[in-house]
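From the pipeline queue, job 12 of 40. The input is one protein chain; the requested action is below.

Action: predict structure.
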Amino acid sequence: MSRIVFLVEERSIKVFLDGVLPRFFPGLSFLCVPHEGRQDLENSIPRKLRAWREPGVRFVVVRDNDNGDCRALKAKLVALCNEGRRGDAVVRLACQELEAWYLGDASALADAFGDGLLRDLAGKERFRDPDTVVRPARALQELVPEFQKVSGARRVAAVARRDQNRSGSFRAFMDAVEQLAVQFGQVAGGEGGN
């Protein structure tokens, strides 16, 4: 059986993907493997990719960009995948942090936290391009004081809309997942638009 294994930087990314992927891609077979931050993720990539013996697995590495050079970081992660003998692994970065993906869907934020004023984020210059927001996690905590990474990931995942998200890095990630799902013959229309 074919499935996607996501190697992710931290638990909040796992919680978000565990909530949103079944809604967007019903029937998709996947597993999210969280790490204890970027260093742990990067150290484990070559080892995990070499050691994984399950047939039919495709790997997707997901990491925050953290205001770094996107091209250089992606090249570094691709090199780690190649070191693990998995040149077919897909690397996707959340620009700048996972929380930018939440800022990209203002309606989902408003629904998740019961605050209709959050719907107006898209009209504010600072949030028009969520991938350029410096320290989006901090910006989100300023907007939603009760926001916490793991519970916030769960709440947003439950109401996220793929077709309304303005984050280019979110769309690139979802497009990559859809391409893999099509290759596996596991694509189906789900909630949130495809």
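Job complete. The mean pLDDT is 94.
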